[in-house]
User: Which sequence fits this backbone?
């Protein structure tokens, strides 16, 4: 059932989209590349795990704390690691976030061990039949939550004053300062939002692949998705993620299943040869 | 209204302003002339708080502002139209104007300012949902000035409004600058087009390599031999 495989692919792809979206938001507004986006997700997943497994809180409260901690983690990353290096070359910040991701991974291993843990899904496991295809509740929940988050972010950036100011900062920090917009606050808010997205990703992904310190590696697929869609483009990040998810699920349908991890990257390279800026990426040209 | 005294500004180790003293009276137009690299834009950037001054005082309406953030300076009533317009290209005309009013909270005041800007620049109203990057050069300059007006400033710092514009458009922009001034806003105008600038300004300063070398009423500067040779390109 090709259609069925595609639907499953979209659900996987949503996770990649979320990763890519977190990366893209930070890149667009600060031009920094956050390699720790996946680890932020992993750590907030373990925070939820601590609350329900170790401290005995309810699942709902624990997942809520997962989201709260992801926002705090984003803010901490910005304030403690990125802001002090604001004037450093972007490559330095990339290395700083890479270092942060390694620290978080080892730190999580020390605290919570390197085992895999089951993680409860907030969505019912019951499958829904739609004609020929069946969508299980978890996949449906992933797609629904991702869609809701995207719409929310779109409305925020397009129609709120703060969201518009954040877009303004991403276009010209100099002019934004002259308007009286605080660039620092805007950067902090960007990291908080990216943190929140990583928290949502944790809630969605951990029930599917189990909670472990290796969970953060999903950021690699996030990078692939963002580049496939067009680095720096928000619709591109979403589209790239979904395309990557579908490819990954459809490839084993036709080829031996070991190819699962090869095909998406082969396609990625192919797309970049044909259109170096990615699917939605645009060359910067502008009237002066 | 605005008074700079002995202001010194550095870019790293390079001193860009070597002790500048300037005065802008209430509701007047004052121009700052000089060649490329003389320090004209640096002066404006120092006033609006984008670069810190290392020595000297800047007073606006009898308050020292040399240590304030750009945000606070906008709130106090100084708007800066930067060099090369520096618009938000991927924001619409309306969104650019809304950002100009970022520090204003009062909705009716913002609405009032918006209709005032559209009265000055009717062409912008027809393009209100267009991205700023798609406007012509003249329209972009209008939008940059309109954006600065949105915070309802008492003083506008205008950096090279004639840059890259056709002569007719330059005329139109200068006409609007005078109109804005007539409604009570003081203007500190930086220009390479000395002739145009001295025609609208009441008073002028000439900057050379970070120092004021000449200052006088505009009509006298227009007659000055040094100015004529160096900035007006006329010899008699």
Assistant:
């Amino acid at each position: 059932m090709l259609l069925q495989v595609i639907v499953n692919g979209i659900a996987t792809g949503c996770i990649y989209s979320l990763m890519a979206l977190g990366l893209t938001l930070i890149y667009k507004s600060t031009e920094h590349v956050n390699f720790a986006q996946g680890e932020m997700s992993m750590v907030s997943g373990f925070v939820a795990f601590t609350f329900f497994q170790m401290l005995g809180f309810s699942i709902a409260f624990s997942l809520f704390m997962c989201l709260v901690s992801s926002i705090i983690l984003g803010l901490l990353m910005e304030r403690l690691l990125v802001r002090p290096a604001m004037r450093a070359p972007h490559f330095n910040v990339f290395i700083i976030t890479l270092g942060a991701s390694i620290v978080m991974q080892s730190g999580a291993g020390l605290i919570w061990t390197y085992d895999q843990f089951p993680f409860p899904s907030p969505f019912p496991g019951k499958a829904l039949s739609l004609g020929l295809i069946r969508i299980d509740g978890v996949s449906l929940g992933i797609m629904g939550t991702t869609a809701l988050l995207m719409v929310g972010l779109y409305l925020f950036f397009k129609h709120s004053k703060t969201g518009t100011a954040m877009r303004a900062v991403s276009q010209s920090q100099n002019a934004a300062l002259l308007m009286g917009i605080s660039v620092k606050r805007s950067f902090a808010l960007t990291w908080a939002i990216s943190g929140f997205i990583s928290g949502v990703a944790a809630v969605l992904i951990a029930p599917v692949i189990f909670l472990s310190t290796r969970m953060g590696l999903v950021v690699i697929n996030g990078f692939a998705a963002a580049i496939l869609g067009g680095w720096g483009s928000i619709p591109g990040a979403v589209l790239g993620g979904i395309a990557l998810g579908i490819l990954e699920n459809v490839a084993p349908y036709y080829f031996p299943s070991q190819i699962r991890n090869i095909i998406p990257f082969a396609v990625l390279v192919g797309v970049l040869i044909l259109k170096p800026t990615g699917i939605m990426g645009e060359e910067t040209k502008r009237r002066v | 209204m605005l008074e700079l005294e002995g202001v010194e500004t550095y870019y790293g180790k390079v001193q860009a302003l070597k002790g500048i003293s300037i005065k802008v009276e209430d509701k007047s137009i004052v121009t700052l002339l000089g060649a490329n690299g003389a320090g004209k834009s640096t002066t404006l950037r120092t006033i609006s708080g984008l670069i810190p001054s290392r020595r000297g005082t800047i007073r606006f309406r009898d308050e020292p502002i040399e240590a304030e953030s750009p945000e606070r300076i906008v709130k106090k009533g100084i708007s800066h139209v930067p060099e090369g317009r520096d618009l938000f290209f991927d924001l619409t005309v309306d969104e650019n104007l809304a950002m100009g009013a970022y520090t204003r909270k009062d909705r009716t005041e913002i609405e009032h300012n918006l209709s005032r800007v559209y009265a000055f620049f009717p062409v912008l109203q027809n393009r209100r949902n267009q991205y700023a990057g798609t406007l012509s050069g003249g329209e972009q300059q209008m939008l940059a000035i309109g954006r600065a007006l949105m915070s309802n400033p008492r003083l506008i710092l205008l950096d090279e409004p004639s840059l890259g514009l056709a002569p007719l458009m330059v005329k139109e922009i200068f006409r609007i600058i005078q109109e804005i001034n007539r409604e009570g806003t003081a203007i500190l105008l930086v220009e390479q087009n000395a002739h145009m600038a001295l025609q609208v300004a009441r008073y002028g300063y000439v900057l050379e390599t970070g120092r004021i070398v000449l200052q006088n009423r505009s009509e006298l500067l227009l007659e000055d031999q040094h100015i004529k040779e160096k900035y007006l390109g006329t010899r008699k």
Q: What stands out?
A: Residues 2-230 of chain B form a domain with the Rossmann fold fold (CATH 3.40.50.300). Chain B has a mean pLDDT of 92.
